[in-house]
Amino acid sequence: MILPSLVPLELPSDFASLPPEERSSILTAGHAMTQYAYRRAAAIIIGAPVWRGKAIRSGSAFVIEQNGSHYLGTAWHVVAYWLKIRRRVKDLVFQVGEALLDPSQALVWKDEAADIAFLSLTAEQFAQIRIAVCEATKGWPAPFAALRAGFQRTDPISTPRFRLSSRSADPSRRLKDRLGHYARPEGTG
Q1: What is the value of pTM for the model shown?
Q2: DSSP H or E segment with residue 116
Q3: What does the DSSP 8-state code read for residue 157?
Q4: 143-181 in b/e burial notation, b at 16+ Cβ within 10 A?
Q5: Which domains does the chain have, with CATH numbers?
Q6: How far apart are CA 65 and CA 59, in angstroms?
Q7: Contact residues for 56 (Cβ-Cβ < 8 A; gap 6+)
Q8: What is the dihedral of CA 123, 124, 125, 127, to 10 degrees?
Q9: What is the pLDDT of residues 47-91, one digit of tens each?
């Protein structure tokens, strides 16, 4: 079953020449990876209260857990913008999901050169953000040996079972030949 695309796809020119089962398998895997990322990303809205009718800005964020506490990760320039504008707009909103945050109180770590910052979250704020926690996943992207054997994710956000066509003795080589960097772990080499 070929799933609808969430974003326009740029596929190799010979993708259409692949057998339908293989195209479906590749698109299904891409859909699962996209969903995995979407479930772990949140939008940040920065602006004056809506009733004032002023422009808003946005950013993106993710959540990590460390020693039982949750932290919102985002780009430092997003937090820096809020801090700068907050000096003159006292009711400036920093909203993620349904959570309202005050970066001046919640900022726990930043690296301006790397453009990253972390804000502490209360349990209530974390619940209001409603995204999955980002965590190191063992074997994602999956090693090609696991792909040959097939695997089932066991975390709460399950993904379909992946199977590659057995027409080639080495599926990793076959995918690399056809899809270039799309099939290489982490887009390398």
Answers
A1: 0.63
A2: strand 116-121
A3: S
A4: ebeebbeebebeeeeebeebbbeeeeeebbebbbebbee
A5: 15-39+137-187 (no CATH), 42-129 (2.40.10)
A6: 20
A7: 45, 46, 47
A8: 90
A9: 987 778 788 899 999 999 998 999 999 999 999 999 999 998 889
